[in-house]
Amino acid sequence: MEHSEQDQLQIAKAQEEVEALRRQLDQHRLAFVTNPMPLLVYETATLKILDANDSALALYGYTHQQICSLSLLELFSPDEQRENNDLQVELGRPVNTIGPFLQRSATAQDLVVSMITFAFDNSGVDTRVAMVLDETAQHVAEEALKSSEERFRELFENANDVIFLHDLGGKILAVNRAAEYITGYARAEVLGRNFDQLVAPEASAAEELPAST
Fold it and tell me: Coil, strand or helix: which one is 176?
């Protein structure tokens, strides 16, 4: 049975629409599925997760089916949910940058993340896309540095030896308790002064004497 010219035009138009849809799907795959940034799509009203790309699955450790059975709130730690009563409101805004927050992976590993969220029309359903910024490694490094600084401060303050910290020009930046006790100077009296000002005049004069031949 031969198609009329009108039928052929309709078929050609339908084929063009299918091809255009295929191109859109390919673009969607490039922009979403294979994006190195973890991305989540969720329903605004319920916060139910509708989709997640491969990077998000790798970050959270869920399968696609598992993560799509969750609400976005379920990714947050229980403490975070209790302490941030406005989470649902913040996650529902058309555009927002929030965090950092403590979340949990499928294996109960702590994750420190921030999120950039924006509105997305998903076939008429009011949804949001969340770009997840994984700050866990940075947070761990900062905590390690903080712990190291606290340990140094404890050793510095409690040392039995007199310790002065000064810059290359001799300006005193810090002193410990032993330095205060031995010298009789209060910390506030010496900070910012030059170390030479604390040296006894006879000691300075002795240093300036030429060596005997």
Answer: coil
